[in-house]
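TOKENISE THE FOLD
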Amino acid sequence: MGKHGTHLVWDWNGTLLDDIDAVIGATNAAFEEIGLEPITLARYRELYRVPVPLFYEQLMGRLPTEAEWLVMDEAFHRHYWVRAEVCGLAAGAAELLAARQAAGLTQSLLSLAPHDLLVPIVRRHGIEERFVRVDGRTGSSTAGKAEHMVRHLVALEGVPPERIVVIGDAADDAVAAAHVGAKAVLYTGGSHSRKSLAAVGVPVVDTLEEAVAVAEELAA
């Protein structure tokens, strides 16, 4: 792997994949099953947290029990993956990924989506070859991305953290970046409101093109 230039670690859901409508639809379908009131996009972006049980705590006034969480998690994923099949990439994503690869710059994909479901959908969008690695979640869905980021960076074989910028749509992406000594840029097209992202203390952008430009400045 090349030793020069910024290495980008991309998030998938809500960043490269424009799936926020699928997320809201699946969330409300799952809520209906478990007796919770439906939620608006604005309310979702205001309350969303990772680990996800903390999001449910905001809605329920308490953390779900382990049994409740298992039901909620299964219901959401059952509804979400049906909807995800018709989601497209975010505006400009395919072109940005191709341009970076053509320029000899490296990038990888790290997601909390299950690995066995992530890889086929990335492949169907025709962008798998743009990344030096594609890693999805292989363990529990109750934790954030920080420990997954540690394993991802080890697998990148020597890319120093100061060369790495994480681009994602959630505060947890910035937390995971800081955990390994990398930088982060947060994108407003996904799970959080601009206000909640701004509170994290890293650059916040409205387009992926801007995210890449800011990432290059951060790692310069």
